[in-house]
Design a protein that fits this description.
The chain is mainly alpha-helical. It is built from four helices and no strands.
Length: about 80
């Protein structure tokens, strides 16, 4: 039983290290995959792919506490 717990702790530690590594190198990973995708498939549009990558990180929520429009969200924030 003790051996199993030790193995689980090591596995969890390795997982957390891998997650941290990916978060630190996220931009480099995205750039590498972007370059390889463009070189492997010649009919891909560079500017369309760049726009997709640039816009994928920014998102604005359209629903705030069950309010689906800007006026409802503004009223909700003004009351709080």
């Amino acid at each position: 039983m003790l051996l199993t717990v030790d193995i689980m702790r090591k596995t969890i530690a390795k997982y957390h290290c891998a997650v941290l590594e990916v978060r630190r190198n996220e931009a480099e990973i995205v750039n590498r995959r972007f370059a390889s995708a463009l070189t492997e498939v010649k009919n891909r549009d560079f500017w369309q792919e760049a726009k997709h990558i640039r816009n994928s990180k920014n998102s604005i929520s359209s629903v705030v506490d069950d309010c689906c429009n800007a006026d409802g969200a503004a009223n909700l924030f003004s009351t709080k």
